[in-house]
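Progress against Task 2.4 (sequence-to-structure conversion) is shown through the following example record, which the project officer requested during the mid-term review.
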Amino acid sequence: MKNNFMNKNNRETFKVEWNDPKNAGLDLDQGIDYDERLAPHFTLREMCYSQTCVRLGIINRMNQPEVIIARLRTLCQKVLEPLRQACGKVVVVSGYRSDCVNYVVGGVTNSQHRLGEAADLYTPTKERAREYFDFIRNNLEFDQLLLERNTKTGHFWVHVSYTERRPNRQMVKTLTSNL
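Structure tokens generated for the chain above:
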């Protein structure tokens, strides 16, 4: 079964392929080893997992797996693993997003998630979000660092990105949204 979603910004249509939810939206037809370790405490599976894919039964397909996986590995090694070593367990709630998944979740069209360069980190409390945010800001190289809060639910999360395509900007922002 397929549905089409129209991106209102650039009028592209994304075909959504329904998948077995037990596969968590992973594209098993590409021969990718999702159990590959990108860093000692992070696997490709967790960097590609999408709760939205599970809920909607869609596939988070990589157009250029070699490029995306290399970028995810760099993000894990340069940012997420050092964060984990300093602060303990880190849970990624959104890593790589295909164009389709990014559209469905309402991501911006130039999202670094689409390039394998960004991750959103679960934080159970505001204090934990601030701990992650401060450690990354004060100790690591990054491109973008956002401390985000959903004003409807009160939940906080940290968005961080790292790129090798250009110099990292070290851009820091605190945002709230009414998602």
